[in-house]
TrEMBL record:
Protein name: CRP-like cAMP-binding protein
Database matches in InterPro entries: cNMP-bd_dom, Env_Response_Regulators, HTH_CRP
Cyclic nucleotide-binding domain ranges (all copies): 18-138
Superkingdom, natural source: Bacteria
Species for this entry: Duganella violaceipulchra
UniProt-recorded Gene Ontology molecular function terms: DNA binding; DNA-binding transcription factor activity
Length: 229
C-alpha cells in the first residue's frame, strides 16, 4: 500500500489562503524564515505566560487552545485542524500568551517569526486584508462559543463544536470527513468521551453525520448548524 503523501513546509505555505496575494519576493522571504517543528500528542505548542515569538500554522495533526485555573480546571477555546493558523492577536500586540496550545495528536507546526509577520503586515495589502477577515471570523467564533457554553446542553454543544470547524477562512483544509476522535471532540466541547459518544450517536440517528473509521463524516452541515436538542 503506498504511503500517504506528507505535505512539505513549502507546500503548506504556498497553499495557505494568506499567501495567495504575496509577491514572489515576499513568498521567498516567508519560505526562508518560516520553519517547522514536531510536537507529540499531549505536548505543548506554546505555553501561557511565554512571550510570543511566532505565528503558528498546523501542517498535520490537531491543536487545542486551552486554559487551566489554579485549581486545575480546564476550558478549551477551540481546536485548530490542518490548514489553520492561530496566534495572530498576540503577535499583533507583541504580548505574552494568554493560553496554552496543546497537541491533541502528533502534530507538525509551521512557525513564522514575529518579525516576518510584521514585515508582511507592513508590505502586503492582501495580507492585511486577510488578517482583518481572520480576526473578524475569530471574534464570531468565540462569541458563539460563549453562547454555546452557557446556554446549550452537551448534545447541542457537540453539534456546534463540529460546525465551528467548517469555517473556510479559519480552517480552509478541512473536508467532510473530520479526522477527530471522540475523546478529542469531548475535550473541545467540554464533555467526557462517553458523553460525546452519546451525542454523536444521537446526531447519527438524526441523519446529520455518520461515524466512520478514522473520523466523523458530516452529512448535513446546515442541519448540524440548526440543531438544538
Amino acid at each position: 500500500m503506498p504511503n500517504r503523501h506528507q505535505i512539505t513546509l513549502k507546500e503548506s505555505l504556498r497553499t495557505a489562503i494568506w499567501a495567495q496575494g504575496l509577491t514572489p519576493e515576499q513568498m521567498a522571504r516567508v519560505e526562508s524564515e518560516t520553519f517547522e517543528t514536531f510536537v507529540p500528542k499531549g505536548g505543548y505548542v506554546c505555553r501561557k505566560g511565554e512571550m510570543v515569538e511566532h505565528w503558528l500554522g498546523i501542517m498535520e495533526g490537531m491543536v487545542k487552545m486551552t486554559n487551566f485555573s489554579a485549581a486545575g480546571k480546564s476550558v478549551s477555546f477551540t481546536g485548530v485542524p490542518p490548514g489553520g493558523w492561530f496566534g495572530e492577536g498576540s503577535v499583533l500586540k507583541r504580548e505574552i500568551l494568554k493560553y496554552d496550545a496543546m497537541a491533541l495528536r502528533d502534530s507538525r507546526i509551521a512557525r513564522m517569526p514575529m518579525s516576518t509577520f510584521h514585515w508582511l503586515l507592513d508590505t502586503s495589502l492582501p495580507f492585511t486584508r486577510f488578517l482583518l477577515m481572520q480576526l473578524n471570523e475569530r471574534l464570531g467564533q468565540f462569541i458563539g462559543m460563549v453562547e454555546n457554553d452557557r446556554l446549550l446542553n452537551p448534545d447541542t454543544r457537540v453539534a456546534r463544536c463540529l460546525v465551528s470547524m467548517f469555517n473556510s477562512h479559519l480552517y480552509p483544509g478541512l473536508e467532510k470527513l473530520v479526522q477527530i476522535s471522540q475523546e478529542e471532540l469531548g475535550l473541545l466541547s467540554g464533555a467526557s468521551r462517553q458523553r460525546a459518544n452519546q451525542a454523536l450517536q444521537l446526531l447519527e440517528k438524526q441523519g446529520l453525520l455518520s461515524l466512520d473509521y478514522g473520523g466523523i463524516r458530516i452529512l448535513d452541515l446546515e442541519g448540524l448548524r440548526r440543531y438544538e436538542a
